[in-house]
TrEMBL record:
Originating species: Pseudomonas silesiensis
Name this protein carries in UniProt: Chemotaxis protein CheW
Keyword Membrane: no
Lineage: Bacteria, Pseudomonadati, Pseudomonadota, Gammaproteobacteria, Pseudomonadales
Domain CheW-like residues, every copy: 78-224
One example of a Gene Ontology biological process annotation: signal transduction
Origin: domain of life: Bacteria
Length: 227
């Protein structure tokens, strides 16, 4: 599921929920009698119940789509990878490690940070999420440039790490692509990955050399950076 599908899903479900916070709450005319007690709608049980209902619907539909996707992938023997760029290097990460591709947000630094890879925290829908540098974790040169006149839009990847979601900023996202398992197997057997951190192999993609990341090793490194 791509970002557009996710937005469409949550938008359709949201239409079935009474968004009183937008009518009479903090984002509306502020006539709600509970507003004086709770100060902000996010502190109200009505708002919390609506959010829980929406998330429950999302989880159920996500699970249904995931089952369909698994069957389809097993038939054609492909694996879904998210392709993104850091500096001049293109990388691929298995979509099973990905929660969401989000717009770039402000990163707030933390005092006395223990890890060089920890950039700080970012606000993701009201929750503070740890923000890490993949450039630092992978030992990359993140100062590369793109061709003149090319429009790029930096993004943040929300990744499902072992201790909870983390955010990593990237310079550009190409999209999610299904890659033939035979190509991936050949890349993993080539031995090219031996000299690169947390890498399973290097494969050709759209005229580029794409570095296929080992998600298990990467997620373990992410966890270590947060402890």
């Amino acid at each position: 599921m791509n970002a557009a599908d996710t937005f469409s899903l949550t938008h359709e479900d949201a239409q079935a929920i009474d968004d009183c916070w937008n009518r009479i709450g903090i984002h509306g005319d502020k006539s709600c009698p509970l507003l004086s007690e709770h100060i902000h709608c996010r502190n109200c049980a009505v708002y919390s119940a609506a959010a829980t209902r929406l998330l429950d619907r999302y989880a159920l539909q996500q699970e249904d789509r995931g089952q369909v996707s698994t069957v389809a992938e097993s038939e054609v023997k492909t694996r879904s990878l998210l392709m993104f760029r850091l500096g001049e290097e293109w990388l691929g990460l298995a979509t099973r490690s990905l929660v969401e591709v989000a717009p770039m947000q402000a990163i707030h630094s933390l005092p006395h940070q223990r890890s060089r890879a920890l950039l700080g925290v970012a606000n993701v829908r009201g929750a503070l999420v740890a923000c890490l540098s993949l450039v630092e974790l992978l030992g990359l040169d993140g100062t590369g440039s793109v061709a003149s006149g090319t429009r790029v839009m930096p993004r943040m990847l929300i990744i499902a790490a072992h201790g909870g979601p983390v955010v990593v900023p990237v310079d550009e996202v190409d999209g999610i692509h299904a890659i033939d398992e035979n190509i991936l197997e050949a890349a993993s057997r080539s031995g090219t990955q031996a000299s690169a951190k947390y890498t399973r192999g290097v494969l050709p993609f759209k005229g580029r050399s794409l570095r296929w990341l080992d998600e298990e090793q990467l997620l373990s490194a992410v966890t270590r950076s947060l402890t």
